[in-house]
């Protein structure tokens, strides 16, 4: 995505509890002379802030023009990840555009292929098996989190349906009572005018 210097851009990532989140980013600055983005932005860093669903700051750190940040969620829900450049220019003069490449991986533990190749075949199979077990645990946590969300949604839907039913019953009772009151008022009017 593109951003201006000193402009804060935030994304929302829905994360289950006790889950590792790894983010890789790279910043490129627009060069007016060549009319293209430079391969890197030397001297420019990114300030990364991660906020939990309960509005607590989980991570707040300054990184370089290219880097990796990670955090482990302890609450399930929508985590807000914000990126802002640390440009020293004033906001009014900071007209340079930035291109930010962001890759966020939730709940994955990556294998270091160089380590795997250095080990013998038994260790390679063992490491890959451990990696698969970690992925199964992550999928299980993700399913538990989705079940929790579905249960909350179902509870909210049932409460709403119950409220709608009671509102309809109250409206019906009000309409019936107004109808009886109008009939009684009309009857009393006709009796007072001696039309009945």
UniProtKB/TrEMBL annotation:
Residues 8-106 form the GOLD domain. The chain crosses the membrane at residues 164-183. Keywords: Endoplasmic reticulum, Membrane, Signal, Transmembrane, Transmembrane helix. InterPro entries: Emp24-like, GOLD_dom. Pfam families: EMP24_GP25L. It is a single-pass type I membrane protein. One of its GO terms (cellular component) is endoplasmic reticulum membrane. PROSITE patterns: GOLD. It is found in: Endoplasmic reticulum membrane; Membrane. Coiled coil: none annotated. PANTHER family: TRANSMEMBRANE EMP24 DOMAIN-CONTAINING PROTEIN. Belongs to the EMP24/GP25L family. This is Transmembrane emp24 domain-containing protein 11. It comes from Apaloderma vittatum (Bar-tailed trogon).
């Amino acid at each position: 995505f593109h951003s201006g210097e000193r402009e804060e851009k935030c994304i929302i990532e829905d994360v289950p509890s006790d889950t590792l989140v790894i983010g890789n980013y790279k910043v490129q600055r627009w060069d007016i002379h060549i009319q293209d983005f430079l391969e890197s932005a030397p001297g420019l860093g990114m300030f990364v802030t991660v906020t939990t669903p309960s509005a607590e700051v989980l991570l707040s750190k300054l990184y370089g023009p290219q880097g990796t940040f990670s955090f482990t969620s302890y609450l399930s829900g929508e985590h807000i990840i914000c990126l802002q450049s640390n440009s020293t220019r004033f906001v009014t003069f900071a007209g340079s555009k930035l291109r930010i490449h962001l890759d966020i991986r939730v709940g994955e533990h990556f294998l270091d292929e160089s380590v795997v190749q250095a080990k013998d075949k038994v260790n390679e199979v063992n490491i890959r098996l451990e990696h698969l077990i970690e992925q199964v645990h992550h999928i299980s946590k993700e399913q538990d989190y989705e079940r929790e969300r579905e249960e909350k949604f179902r509870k909210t839907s049932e409460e709403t349906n119950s409220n709608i039913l009671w509102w309809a019953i109250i409206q019906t009772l009000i309409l019936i009572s107004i109808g009886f009151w109008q009939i009684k008022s009309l009857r009393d009017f006709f009796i007072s005018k001696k039309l009945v």
